[in-house]
Each structure stands twice: as structure tokens, then as C-alpha cells.
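Lab intake sheet, docking and co-folding queue.

SAMPLE TYPE: protein with bound small molecule
LIGAND NAME: flavin-adenine dinucleotide
LIGAND FORMAT: SMILES
REQUESTED OUTPUT: full 3D complex as C-alpha cells
PRIORITY: normal
SUBMITTED BY: R.K., bench team

The fields below were copied directly from the construct record.
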Amino acid sequence: MTHAPLMLDADSGSDLHRIVIIGGGAGGLHLATRLADTVGRRRAAEIVLVDRYPTHFWKPLLHEAATGHRDPANHHIEYLAQAKRYGFRFVQGQLGDVDRDACIAAIGAVLDAEGAEILPQRQIRYDSLVLSVGSVTNFFNVPGAALHALPLENVEHAEVFRRKFHAACAKANHRLETAGVRSSPAVSINVIGAGATGVELAAALTHAADQLSAYRFQALDPKRDVRIRLIEGGVRVLPALDERVSARAAAALRRLNVEVVTGARVAEVRADSLVTGSGDTLDSDITVWAAGVAGPAFLKSLHGIALNAANQIIVTDQLQTQGDPRIFAFGDCAACPSAASNGFLPPRAQVAHQQAMYLGKAFAQRLSGKPVPGFTFRDAGTVVSLGQAGATYQTGGSVPSRALIVNGAAASGLYRLLYRKHLLGVSGFKHAVLGVLAQWLGRGSRPAIKLH
Ligand SMILES: Cc1cc2nc3c(=O)[nH]c(=O)nc-3n(C[C@H](O)[C@H](O)[C@H](O)COP(=O)(O)OP(=O)(O)OC[C@H]3O[C@@H](n4cnc5c(N)ncnc54)[C@H](O)[C@@H]3O)c2cc1C
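RESULT FIELD (auto-filled):
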């Protein structure tokens, strides 16, 4: 491994056991905070968090950032502030490579928007390395998908989508105002994949179209002029959930004016259209790919670390990699065996959160020489937002048909609780309550949607 220049940026000269966590997302930020607050505070270990971005934004809110219902600037957490408050070190940069023999993680240079170097490449020594780098979009090699379909992995992607959505609406509105000609529909958005991400995005988009028409694009009739299509290869939406939840979600989406197309596999994505497996061509101004995730490509370069077919790191029940017990992985980037099925745990915030809690405890046990039990996932159920149509919640358990289904206000309340629970975990009670209160108080002074 050659890197220049060599800078042990996060080397404090201490001989404490150093735990380096790569990725401060839904799981990594929890883990860094918890470890710093426990083993770090007791001076039993030194905690370093690395992320390619300077701020954290909770990924399950990305569809709300994409539709403009949530401004990421009001909802991010500064890693440096969190590090100062809890007592860990934060290093900005992207993990490139790991020298497992020397126990060194190579962190890439940080560049500005013009490509000029702000921070050079650095190398960080570790005693334990934890990979929580999340997932990337899996385009399944569908021709044109990576080129023409938008992914929704981070705040930048959400912002790209939001700008394109506004631009498409602005152009259509202008056409309607000047020519007055109605070619129906004027804006066509296709969301590929009707898992939770696709369903939540499609539902939120109908609300965004209504609000944009009310505030900004008055010539646009959102029901007639904006077509939002949700395309699913399987026979029903939310295929991982019980059929009752699928039926309720599909009906709610249709009521919201989403065109739900099931049993249609997308065979090709073009700049302005899609082609399905049965040969139909569908117009598309904007195509979003929400049909699956995979581990980040760079994981392939970590020699000796076993990956599954979806490029996720295969871990033991103690979340250690098979090739190296000093390297741990969890969250979306890890393939953790599921006790309830023959496969792996799903890529969900709930899994990442429970694994972070587990690892926080496991490191404390390991450092004090105590035995470490294996990780057990307890499925607390799944809640899916249906935008203006509320939400739907299915309790956990290995037999979906026995699950309890909750809809209406109770499910919407549960959905809102998820983010608050996350805030509580990373910010503590006082900061979480103050944050929620500040958002609530600010509501009246801002439009319900980001307008520009
Ligand atoms: C729109 C949307 C809605 C969702 N809704 C839900 C939901 O309602 N419920 C639910 O349970 N799950 C939901 N999910 C899934 C959930 O967001 C993920 O399962 C969860 O965020 C995984 O957590 P993680 O810590 O593994 O990864 P992430 O939260 O993705 O964090 C990964 C972190 O690693 C950093 N990183 C990546 N590569 C590198 C690198 N090379 N070097 C340094 N840093 C790096 C990233 O910047 C990021 O901060 C949703 C996902 C999306 C996209």
C-alpha cells in the first residue's frame, strides 16, 4: 500500500486501545457516541470516527429531503460538535484502503468543490476497526440505469432530485402559462422499486406536487399534469411485508394519484423513457432507482475480507469479519446472519441501531476481558410513511400473516417517533427535546416545502 504523504493525523500518542469507526451514519454515529460516553470516558479506549462528510443526516429522511419537506441544513448534526461534546475524535475523509498487517486505515484527501486539496491523504492506526459505511444503489446491471436513473443515497442525491423536480415543474408550468396547451401529463416521474423507500418517496411526491402548485406553479394542476408512477417487478408493493400491508399501501397510493404498476421489470433506462421487460416504453422526465442496495464497491479491495453476492461484508454473530477478528462491520454494509430466516438481516436503520447498541456493550466487555455474547436482532416491526395518507405499521415476527397491522394516527405517530428516537440516542434527552421544539416553533415562519 503506497500513500503519500504519510500523516498520522489522528495519532494522539496515547497507548490506549484505539477503536476507529468508519462511517458516521445511522449506526456509526450511535456507536461512536456510545463508546465515547462509556469506554472513552473511563479511559479504557480512544475512539476515532471517520466520515467522508462533515455532517450527519439520518438516511431514512432522504425522501423528505428529496421532496423538499425537510431541509437537510436544519436537520444535520455536525460531527465535530458531537465529537467535542462526547469526547471522540472526528476525521473527515473517505476510507480507501486498509493495511491489515500494519493495522492502518488509509483515508483519502479532502478536496474542495474546484478539486483543490483541503486535507491530504492520511493514515490512521487502529487496534479495532469498525466498518459502518452503509450501502450504495444496486442497479443490477440494467442497461442505462446507472447513467440515467437517479439514486437516493445521500443529501447530494436528494438535492439533485429536488432541483430536477422543480425544473421539470417550472418548464411545464411555463408551457401551460404561455401556450395554454395541455399535453397530459406535463411532468412524468418514475420511481423504480416499490419497497419502503420507493413507496415513501412516491407518496411524499404527490404532496410536494400539490404544495408546489399552490405556492409556485399555479398553472400546473398536480392531479392532471404531474404523473408519478411507481414500478415494481414483483406482484405487489412492499413485497417484504404482509399482503394486508401491501394492499392497504397500494390503495392509499392510488388515492393519492400515484400510478402503481406491478409485475413490470424495467429492462432499460433511457434519458427520457423506460423500457419494460414486456417491451412497453414509458415516458420519463425523471427516473429514480429505489430497487435495491449493495455494499460499496471499494469493499472489494479489502483483501481477505469475505463478501456476499451483494458485496456486503460477511460477519460472524459477534459482527467480526471472517478474515480478521480486529475488523468489525455492521449496518447496511454487513451481511449478518438472520436467526429468523436462512439469509441475512435486511438493510434497515433498525438493524444498524441495534447492532450499534450491541457493539457498544461488546467492546466494553471485550476490553475488560469478559465473555462477549452473540448479537440477536429483535424485530420491532416496520412502519412505512404514506405521506398525506398517513402510515402503516406491521409488528415484527417470523410469520408475517400473524403480524398485527396498525394504520392511521397511531402508525403516523410511530413513524414520527423513529427519528425522535434516533435524535435521543445520539443527542441525549435535553438536546433532542430542544431540537424538536425548535423545529416545531420554526414551522409557522417557513413554507411547508422548500421552494427554491
Ligand atoms: C429514502 C430512504 C428511506 C429509508 N427509510 C427507512 C425506514 O423508514 N426504516 C428503516 O429501518 N430504514 C430505512 N432506510 C434504510 C436506512 O436508512 C439504512 O438501513 C441505514 O441508514 C443504514 O445505516 P448504516 O449506518 O449502515 O449506513 P448509513 O446510515 O448509510 O451511513 C453510512 C455512513 O458512511 C459514510 N461513508 C460511506 N462510505 C464511506 C467511506 N468510504 N469512508 C468514510 N465514510 C463513508 C457515509 O457518509 C455515511 O455517513 C431508508 C433508506 C432510504 C434511502
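REVIEWER NOTE: Residues 139-291 form a domain with the FAD/NAD(P)-binding domain fold (CATH 3.50.50.100).
SIGN-OFF: pending second check by T.M.
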